[in-house]
Amino acid sequence: MKRVVIKIGTNVIAKNNNELDAISMKHIVEQIVELHKKGHEIILVSSGAVGAGRGRVSLKQHTNDVTKRQVLAAVGQIILMGEYNKLFGKHHLTCAQVLATKQDFGSRIHFLNMKNCFEGLLHEKIIPIVNENDVVSVTELMFTDNDELAGLVAGMMGADAVLLLSSVDGVLDKDGKVVQEIKQGDTQWKESVSEQKSLFGRGGMVTKCKMAHKLSSIGIDVYIANGRQGKVLGDIIDGKKVGTHFVAQSQHISSAKKWVAYAEGYEKGVVHLNICAEPALRKGPNSLLPVGITRVEGSFQKGDVIKIKNHEGNDIGFGRAEYGSEIACMYAGKKGKKVLVHYDYLYLV
Is the pLDDT reported for residue 137 higher than 90? Predict the structure, then answer.
């Protein structure tokens, strides 16, 4: 059995006129049902709410962009979930709506509450369908796109694999051929990846690849493939050469470390290290002691995620603080003080 996060891009389930493509959605759901029957645990991250709303309502011209997105999402989400509910219901499967915001992953308490909900749904054989809560997620509170959301959910749930389905066949090389496999350390693919955004969504191949590379570094296999191509889901799970496979490194990483690993953009503060501290941390397994800290920036509390920089100012990792910034400032550079970041909650890039 595998635990799989499947992300469906808007281009896979929407027509050019913004309406949902019922035939494509039916095809995707049938594939998910087959995987479910084989015992796989499936979490579906689905875009399409804003597009569905755009196909239903015409907004007044003076409506600002933020309000437009909120209105379209509010209208479209119920349309999207209604279609999924109907399609899964035909196979006697129950699906559940989970709307998430960026803030839900910044707090360890929110993180664990959400994880508990997902575990409960999977235990009851219910298909969680996740989307960003666009009604309240605006500007800096937004995910880069649903690829980022899928990555966060995968890290949180200890997924075995993430399948990113879009309207392209995978990562293409300079000659336009699909790159079948990308391993840790491979960088040639970066030269040919396009910055172009998708037709309906906010994302593009660059954000997909960045997320895929990060997930593979924490032990999760990632596949980028064409969601409109045959039985793509079953083919990938069966090990067939479909799309682009970002190969997971074999090192086991705990759920707590995966949460910390995905903390970029959620950190509440920064600590700077002296020249000796980084080599000591990388020898491992070592915790971050105040004696190796030269400077503390920002205001953070116990349990918050903080960024770690080396003596040259380069980002080298993230960690969960064992106490707040005021105490960290007092302890900085001193011997014999309590660990600021325990090894169990330390992730180095």
Answer: no
Burial of 146 (0-12, 13-18, 19+ CB in 10 A): buried
Task: Among 200, 232, 257, give the residue marking a domain's end.
Answer: 257
**3-state SS class at 220:** coil
SS3 content of the chain, % helix, strand, coil (to 5): 40, 20, 40
Average pLDDT, the chain: 89
pLDDT tens digit string along 153-184? 998 898 999 999 998 999 988 888 899 999 87
- The per-residue pLDDT for 41 is 98
Helices within the chain (DSSP H only): 10-13, 22-37, 49-56, 65-89, 108-123, 146-157, 205-217, 232-237, 255-261, 277-283, 325-331
Q: Are 275 and 334 in contact (CB under 8 A)?
A: no
For residue 317, give the CATH number of its domain. 2.30.130.10
Q: How many domains does the chain have?
A: 2
Euclidean distance between the first and final Cα of the chain, in Å?
30
DSSP 3: E
* Judgement on whether residues 203 and 283 belong to the same structural domain of the protein: no
Cα dihedral sign, 29-55-166-128 = negative
> Could you tell me if 128 and 44 are in contact, meaning their C-beta atoms sit under 8 angstroms apart?
yes
Which of these three, 209, 233, 257, is where a domain ends? 257
Structural domain for 296, as ranges? 264-348
Statement: residue 248 has pLDDT above 80: yes
Helix (H, G, I), strand (E, B) or coil at 184: coil
Give the whole-angstrom CA distance, residue 244 versus residue 170: 5
Q: What is residue 164's DSSP assignment?
A: E
- Residue 80: helix, strand or coil by DSSP? helix
Q: Which of the pair, 257 or 44, is modelled with greater confidence?
A: 44
194 and 287 share one domain: no
- Interatomic CA distance for residues 285 and 262, integer angstroms: 20
Give me the helix-helix angle, 108-123 and 146-157, nearest 10°. Answer: 80
Q: What is the pLDDT of residues 300-328, one digit of tens each?
A: 999 889 999 999 999 999 999 999 999 99
Assess contact for 287 and 260: CB atoms under 8 A.
no
